[in-house]
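We modelled each protein-ligand pair independently. The example shown here corresponds to the zinc ion entry; the chain sequence is given first, followed by the ligand as SMILES.
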Amino acid sequence: MVEVLIGKVSGERIRRDLFYLSKDPLPFRKANYTRSGQTKSTLEETDDYIRAQLEEAGCGFRETRHQVQAFRCDETKPLHHWYSKPAPDDPWYDVANIEAVIEGSERPDEIVQLISHKDSMSWIDSPGARDNCVGLVANLEMARLLAGAGLKRTVRILFCNEEHRPWTSRKAAEAGAAAGDEIVAVLNVDSLDGKSDEDTAGGKLTHVVAYSTDEGKALAEQVAWCAKRYGIDLEPKVVFKEKVNDDDGMYINSGFRRTVMNVGSFPYEDAEYHLVGDVPERVNLENVVRSAQVVLAAAVEISQDV
Ligand SMILES: [Zn+2]
């Protein structure tokens, strides 16, 4: 089953989604940016695109609404970290968490959780192609392939917001904890292919699985091993991430400790990280395809292993 599904990952669909959501027609995915002639923000337009793609794939989903603010921009801070706290009186925006739910046939109460933040930087006009349009489109492709695949455990795929404040992954993780959800693994997909200019120029295909807990370490090794097991040609790395942060950290903080982040490099080495130069033309699509295959393989293995 794993081989069949990973063989269906489409570079063409990934490319189409990536350019649609980070170039044309949507230059950004921000609650505080609306294209001229449009009534919805580019983040709401992104949500419409995700919903339409999930519907077309016959993939069920659910939604929650949250209030967020845009970060302010402070150019006196270090280059990649210009975001600064919004003021209390700054505008609030109503944004969505969209979560694809692919019900398991044998153990529907046991959940494999995939995550990707779908928004781009609220404090700067960056397309956020690697951060994190690639994760969004990789997860969208996985939703298409997993819907109707007949998985034993349930797979949930959360599309959340992490470049506005507060992060909405935290709400989803806390709701899961409050509901007593049995989440057996959490796979955050954030900034696949993001790497140094040198590695980009050299055509290096990278995939880092970062963990912050003992339980996450075993999961990280399983994910990385999938590359070899299924003949996916890239060199995965397993690394320890000391800081419990990012969207994966929100799940760890809510008690879901079997959690990892999939990323292109760690520490993150993209020279255009959080800058206007994070454009889709810099993305190595083959890397995104193969990284998506690695994560998909792991998600299917975990969902089928009973
Ligand atoms: Zn970011």
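The first helix runs from residue 2 to 7.
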